[in-house]
Design a protein that fits this description.
globular, 213 residues, three-stranded antiparallel sheet, 25% strand, 31% helix, alpha+beta
């Protein structure tokens, strides 16, 4: 099933991005104005920008939240998924339920990555990750696979994944973008189309920033 991935990188964000919070709906305005680290707040601002510039989501009433907080459009379609890390924010848009997750491929695979996988994978699966030609990439793909499925399912980590158990019936596909693994989960195998969205262009579209500055 076709899924559009709208990707906004964060490294070129304007220094005064926080003065433009009025461009996004209140939910993401509030998320971007907490005391969280700046990359986290910027990621939430970018999520709001993507929702507004791609889907014209300007109010909280245009969104509905699942039991574990997964956002969807209140209108019911299209379906959406959101994810961000310190470097990029992703908005997935599809006709079917979709989950998406992004993870930077680490410089190397080590104890930190192994400890993270122990909570979500079986010992056999961890062994496959560690014996892969590129364990760091294999880690990022394994982690985003788990997260994307849990997000698509809607229960997130309220679902007990210990031992590598995941909700059944989900298919995944991934792309690599600027050193990041991005995985989508859907009921049918995702066919991913990547669209890059410039933060400054999105701000200009919404009336808050001129391009070329």
């Amino acid at each position: 099933m076709h899924v559009d991935l709208h990707i906004m990188t964060l490294e070129a964000a304007p220094v005064d991005w926080a003065s433009h919070l009025g461009l996004v709906c209140p939910r993401y305005r509030e998320k971007a104005a907490t005391k969280a680290p700046e990359p986290t707040r910027l990621g939430e601002f970018a999520a709001g920008l993507l929702l507004a510039s791609v889907l014209d989501v300007r109010t909280d009433e245009q969104l509905s939240l699942g039991p574990e907080g997964k956002p969807e459009l209140a209108a019911g379609s299209p379906h959406i998924g959101l994810s961000h890390d310190d470097a990029m924010t992703i908005l997935a848009v599809a006709d079917g339920v979709v989950g998406v997750d992004v993870e930077e491929v680490p410089a190397q695979y080590g104890s930190l990555q192994r400890d993270a996988l122990r909570g979500v994978l079986s010992a056999e699966h961890i062994e496959r990750v560690e014996s892969a030609p590129d364990p760091a990439l294999s880690f990022a793909l394994a982690w985003t696979h788990v997260e994307a499925v849990l997000k698509a399912d809607g229960r997130g980590f309220a679902f007990d994944v210990r031992g590598g158990h995941l909700p059944a019936g989900w298919k995944t596909a991934y792309v690599l973008v600027d050193g990041h693994a991005v995985t989508c989960a859907m009921r049918e195998e995702p066919a991913i189309c990547v669209h890059r969205v410039c933060m400054r262009d999105a701000m200009a579209l919404l009336g808050g920033e001129k391009t070329g500055r």
